Structures are given as structure tokens and as C-alpha cells.
Hints:
Blueprint: E1 2-3, H1 5-11, H2 16-23, H3 27-34, H4 42-52, H5 56-59, E2 60-61, H6 65-68
Antiparallel strand pairs: 1-2
Amino acid sequence: MKNNIRIYRAIHNLTQEELARKISVTRKTVNSIEGGKYNPSIDVAYKMAKLFNVTIEELCCFEDEENTGENEKVDE
């Protein structure tokens, strides 16, 4: 999942380590979430959104399956 965490972290002048401490996860978890390797749990997403004073929707870029082409049928 794409996200804006790195941007909001920079706006708030936080390192990955500082953000991790504030939301009770490891720096590696923050790094993985920022890199799109790991999707945050609703609890972690909520904590980050609250910390940055934004909505979860502003923080995370949800992809609509209808727009990704995953469910399109190919005519043969």
C-alpha cells in the first residue's frame, strides 16, 4: 500500500526511530510500512494519523480494486 508517512514524518521533523517510539513499534516496522512492504494494522495507522493530526485516508493511499485492473476479464 502506498502511503504518505515519510512526508508527514518529515513535516513533523521525526526520525523513523522517534516515530516508532511514539507509536510503540520498532524502527524496522516504520521503515517497512514507509516502503510499502508491510501494511499497518488499524491500531498503528490510527496512532500515526492521530500523531500527525490527519485522517487515516490522508496518511494511507488505498487502491480501489476497480481501478487497478485486477478484476478485469480478458476477452479471448
